[in-house]
Amino acid sequence: MVHYAFMIPLFPLLSFLLHLLFRKRVRSIAPILGCICTLVPLVLSVGVLIARFQGTTYTKEIEWLSLGKTAITMGVVITPLNAMMLVIVSLVSFLVHVYSKEYMKDSERLGTYYSYLGLFTFAMLGLVMSVNVVQLYIFWELVGVGSFLLIGFHYTSLAARAAAKKAFIMTRIGDVGLLIGIILLYWKTGSFSFAAIFQSVASGGISQEMITVTALLIFVGAIGKSGQLPLHTWLPDAMEGPTPVSALIHAATMVAAGVYLVAIMYPLFLASSVAMTTVAVIGGITAIFAASIGLVQDDLKRVLAYSTVSQLGYMMLALGSGGYDAGVFHLMTHAFFKALLFLAAGSVIHAVHTQNIREMGGLWNKLKFTGPLFVVGALSLSGFPLFAGFFSKDAIFAAVYHDGRYVLFFIALLTAFLTSLYMFRLVFLVFFGPAAEKIYRENSIILLAPMVVLGILAVVAGYIGSSWFGAPLQRFLHDGTTSLPLEAHGPVWLPYVAILISLAGIGVAYVRYGRRKDFHHENTSSSPVTMLLKNKYYVDEVYGVIFVKGAAFIGTIFVFVERYIIEGMVGTLASTVQWLAKCGSAFQNGQVQRYGAVAITGLALMLLLFIVLTGGYLQ
Amino acid sequence: MNNVPLSGYLLLALVLFCIGLFGALTKRNAVIVLISIELMLNAVNINLVAFAKYGENPGLTGQIFALFTMTVAAAEAAVGLAILMALYRKRKSVHVDEMNHLKQ
Amino acid sequence: MNHLVSLLIFSPLVGILLLACIPGNRERWLKWVALLCTLLPLGLVFALGMVFRLGESGNQFAETMSWLSYAMQGATGTVIYAIRYEVGINGLSLVLLMLTTLLMVLAVIASWSIKHHVKSYFLFFFLLELGMIGVFAAQNLFLFFIFFELTLVPMFFLIGRYGYRDREGAAYHFLLYNGLGSLVLLIVFVTLFMVTGTMNYAELLAVLPSLSSSFKMGCLLALLLAFGIKLPMVPLHSWMVKVHVEAPAPVVMLHSGVLLKIGGYGLIMFGMLFFPEEFKELAGVLAVWGVINVLYGAFLALVQKDLKRVLAYSSVSHMGIVLIGLAACNEAGIKGAILQLLSHGLISALLFFLVGILYERNATSQLKDYSGLAVGMPVTAGLLLAGGLASLGLPGMSGFVSEFLAFLGLFEKMPIVAAVGTLGLIVTAAYVLRAILAITFGEQRSMERAVEINARERVPAFILLALIMLIGVFPNVVTAPLATLLDTILPLVRGS
């Protein structure tokens, strides 16, 4: 089965090409075609996972670009992490394809939509199977393009256009860091392949400073793609894209690519304590930063977007604290419950035709399936006991505690409180309380079925990582490698504290939002803190001034250089020549007497020269 | 009569030549220009005759040459005046600085 | 078979002769005959490519004929100076010749809508092709110079007669700058000839190492000036911007696609091959200069209001990558530089072709006049987006391979400079997306202007896009012929 692994990304690629080239003809069967093209990879991925679980390893490379004696290759490699990611990506992609059939059915450009989805899925699957850093970078950029195209799908909207541009440019900044890191590693180790790099790190072939520098540069790439501080502002804006896209890309897969990058380069990071600290600190700060902003946002999707940023921060925090297993575990559970939340949000938006939670309320009775599903996702995200999120968050807390950074530990706990607070703020504002008079119908089964699948996973997926069942996930991940740190077990009181915090958050949310009486309940408090949070700490504005205006300013300076210095140079040259010509033409004015004067003067000068230089006739 | 040295005649010719040159190059009236040209030619004649009598190789050559230049001067004056008449008939003016059709 | 190269060089004459026989008012005939006649050189280049022996270094298909010779009284008796007619192909010239002939065919297809003075337009085209092919096929400095100069004349007329509003100024600008470059080139070539007695590349290669180092440095600096005007290097680039803005689109396709590459070709063949030691000494300067090109062009492209100017400064920026790659003086860098020559030729031809189509339809290329093109002209918008993504170096397109290799190369020698250069990647993304999205996304403003790209126009666009993606996905297709050339240059440049 593993020998067919290379075919996994080819099906979505086929979907991309077919949908792009035959947009008009394929439109009616586009969703079916798209779903088939993701179902096959799903089946294959599950097969690959099972094979890997049984211990088969597989690597295959072909030469891509010759470089002197060596060559850069492209290929396929199946490690435990890869196999797991393959299943996650293809599963969520398949579910999103199914969901989109109903959600996007009114769109004229359905074929184009499915083709972009196919491109993205192809790139993401190729990324997680990469055999060396160059291939990873190539698919990394392709994932970025897929995301760009999908965010900008509603291209007539200026907001979508701006959001797509912003997403691409910000992730590009990260990509440049990644590129520099890759190149530096190549010159230090002589190879692009993961194995060779890690070997070099282990055997001391790279200096400590260089390890730190390259690890940090690679982390810059992860910051960009995963929306960590300071390159986070594109993620909330990316909500301009269709909601299924947000579920696929900005919850489950693309943003997880940054976490995946750190995980796959983990031996490099482990070798540098500075890099680990940086990863953990940035992760922690991002987590609490984003959670605080999510508390006051009124747009349903934006809250979820900030929640994604915050949860990605958790994953980075875990990885940076040596909790490889915890980070990867949370990656998996987050993919499920966040995708579920986005799809459920999409269902709500599809029914209610607004994204502003101030205009919603009391939908629990009207959307009888969406409501419970959303709550399942919210409970999982908040770490409610027995749901998947509880186990993965617990693992993260354990790892951070074990690492000894108590400040970060405290931040993690505080963020958990904020997380359940803002999630249940959403739940209570959207589903409970006074309702509008309009009739809303629940959505069709096509919309609901994927959510049910994800809902089940959002509960069940936690068990494969918990120690109650012998931690099969952790054992699987460690299969075949010895360089990964073992899972830490936190203090005994940790799970209870976590439960307490999450319940506290739900409680406060109920008190604040669950008991309101009037519809359009406005939180009109305009205290400075609220304003700061509502405006996202003004980060966007600061970036706008520094970078956008700054770059335009530099451009304008160069325009002046162009106009006055460079063209000035040329212009001066031209006008000098013209001036000389004018001087010369002053002679030719048609006055005979002037001609005569010039002739006589010339003659006199020549005679003078003759006498001076040679002494004349009289010697 | 005292012997006037050679340089005296040469000086006289120089002065006459310069006056003629000045007139030829600066005067507006074409007739004056022609007169100045005649003056220059006569200065040359003086020069030639002076060298013929007092110069390094005294002889008749200079004087013969002077006769030639006088002839040429006469012919040139005639032609010049003819051109001047034609121009005057066309342009009703004898001012040299108005004849600038050759200008760029 | 053994005169294939000469046949290739003079094959555009067939076009000239045939066109001369057709009356000037039969425009359809003229266009079709021109198209067929451009297929002839393309076919010949393909034939050459088939028979080209990979792995054999040096000159292939060499032809020599004695031509000029004269005796001069030197200090030690009579010296005979001989200049022969020598032509031949190596890997680099083969690649560039393919680019040239292909772009000629596509440019002729793109010129279908020329209305006035059609006959002389195509006559100039063929003359230009003659010059371009000759430049790449010449094996001695004299022939190189002749063909180099030969390209200036038809370009001057093509710009000055068939261009847009400010065409005459652009044509004069072009002629003066390039004429200056040719002057410097002439001085260097003549000096070399007088000092070494030969103009043949191979013979020069043998003789040059024994000359004094300061003389060689002087020659290299002069060559840098001459080819720097052509490349173009900032601050000698203003003529190129004018040409790109004022010349008609097919002419810009050729200019940006081929003529600028002559600068790169000259730097490699004459700069690196003849004067490797001095080139290495200057490598640091060249690297910084390349980064300046990249950043200067990119920031300027960011603030332009006219799409053509955006693309013009984008060309300045991309040619900086060539300098960066060459300055690295290692396999990755030089390979990246050559690939960038090829890749940029294709990408800028595609983009300028599309701009030309837009301009034909709407008589404007100002960004503010366009919005929502994707609604009315989705195929064109898609092509523009694809071209823009290729321009910013997206993997899967040729631009990525060349930029990646160039930076890979430079990081080995000058990591700090290279790191600054990579900032250019960010600014490139910014200006490309700004310009392309401003045109294609957004509300559509006026319905009647949106006539979709037709079948004839699709041909060049899709061929170019296909090639760009082919090279991006299978770069070894192109790098194979380059291998032996690189093997020759690299030991020289790595040196001591």
UniProtKB/TrEMBL annotation, chain A:
InterPro entries for the chain: NADHpl_OxRdtase_5_subgr (IPR018393), ND/Mrp_TM (IPR001750), NU5C-like (IPR003945), Proton_antipo_N (IPR001516)
Membrane topology: Multi-pass membrane protein
Domain annotation NADH:quinone oxidoreductase/Mrp antiporter transmembrane: ranges: 131-419
GO BP annotations listed: ATP synthesis coupled electron transport; electron transport coupled proton transport
Domain of life: Bacteria
Molecular-function annotations in GO: NADH dehydrogenase (ubiquinone) activity; NADH dehydrogenase activity
GO cellular component, as recorded: plasma membrane
Residues covered by the NADH-Ubiquinone oxidoreductase (complex I) chain 5 N-terminal domain: 64-114
Membrane spanning residue stretches: 6-22, 29-51, 71-99, 111-131, 137-155, 206-224, 245-269, 275-296, 303-323, 335-352, 373-391, 406-433, 445-465, 493-511, 542-561, 595-618
Keyword Transmembrane assigned: yes
Pfam families: Proton_antipo_M, Proton_antipo_N
Compartmental location: Cell membrane; Membrane
Keywords noted in UniProt: Membrane, Transmembrane, Transmembrane helix, Ubiquinone
Family: Belongs to the CPA3 antiporters (TC 2.A.63) subunit A family.
Protein name: NADH:ubiquinone oxidoreductase subunit L
Automatic annotation (TrEMBL), chain B:
GO cellular component, one term: NADH dehydrogenase complex
Transmembrane regions: 6-25, 32-52, 64-88
InterPro entries: NADH_UbQ_OxRdtase_chain4L/K, NUOK/Mnh_C1-like
Subunit structure of this chain's protein: NDH-1 is composed of 14 different subunits. Subunits NuoA, H, J, K, L, M, N constitute the membrane sector of the complex.
Family note: Belongs to the complex I subunit 4L family.
Cellular compartment(s): Cell membrane; Membrane
Coiled coil residues, start to end: none
Species this protein is from: Fictibacillus macauensis ZFHKF-1
EC code(s) of this entry: 7.1.1.-
Catalysis performed (reactions): a quinone + NADH + 5 H(+)(in) = a quinol + NAD(+) + 4 H(+)(out)
Top-rank taxon: Bacteria
Protein name: NADH-quinone oxidoreductase subunit K
Stored HAMAP family: NDH1_NuoK
Record NCBIfam families: PRK05715.1-2, PRK05715.1-3, PRK05715.1-4, PRK05715.1-5
GO molecular function: NADH dehydrogenase (quinone) (non-electrogenic) activity; quinone binding
One of the GO BP terms on file: ATP synthesis coupled electron transport
UniProtKB/TrEMBL annotation, chain C:
Name of protein: NADH:ubiquinone oxidoreductase subunit M
Biological-process GO terms, alphabetical: ATP synthesis coupled electron transport; electron transport coupled proton transport
Keyword presence, Membrane: yes
Enzyme Commission number: 1.6.5.11
Transmembrane segments: 29-52, 89-109, 121-138, 144-162, 174-195, 215-237, 258-276, 282-303, 310-328, 334-359, 371-394, 414-441, 462-486
Cellular localization per UniProt: Cell membrane; Membrane
Main location: membrane
Membership in a protein family: Belongs to the complex I subunit 4 family.
Lipid bilayer topology: Multi-pass membrane protein
InterPro entries: NADH_Q_OxRdtase_chainM/4 (IPR010227), NADH_UbQ_OxRdtase (IPR003918), ND/Mrp_TM (IPR001750)
Transmembrane helix among keywords: yes
